[in-house]
């Protein structure tokens, strides 16, 4: 099952039993960054998103749809 970024981040944070504030501090980003990601906002910095995703050993990067759909 595929999850969007917002749901993935929220689920992983909750699995780690962290509040948004605790998670932001551990990820080294502002609380507003975590909130924007979990709310599905589209005006996010890729660098900030990757700071958050690194907490789970993941990274977001541009990929060609042709490559993904193969």
Q: Tell me about the largest β-sheet.
A: none
Class by alpha and beta content: mainly alpha
Strand content: under 5%
- What letter string, H or E per element, gives the SSE order? HHHHH
Q: Taking all residues together, what is the mean pLDDT? A: 89
Oligomerization status of the protein chains:
single chain
What are the segments in which pLDDT stays under 50 over at least 5 consecutive residues?
A: none
Number of helices: 5
Determine the N-to-C terminus distance.
18 Å
Helical content, roughly? Answer: 55-70%
Outline type: globular
Quick one: how many beta strands? 0
Task: Give the tags.
70 residues; mainly alpha; 56% helix
Structural summary, described in words:
Helix 1 crosses helix 3 and helix 2 crosses helix 3 (31-38). The protein has 70 residues and is mostly helical. The chain has helices at residues 5-15, 20-27, 31-38, 46-53, 65-68. The chain is built from five helices and no strands. The chain is 56% helix and 0% strand. The relative contact order is 0.16.
């Amino acid at each position: 099952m595929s999850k969007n970024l917002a749901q993935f981040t929220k689920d992983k944070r909750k699995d780690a039993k962290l509040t948004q504030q605790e998670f932001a501090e551990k990820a080294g980003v502002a609380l507003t960054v975590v909130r924007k990601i979990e709310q599905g906002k589209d005006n996010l910095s890729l660098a900030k998103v990757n700071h958050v995703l690194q907490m789970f050993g993941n990274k977001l990067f541009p990929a060609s749809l042709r490559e993904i759909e193969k």
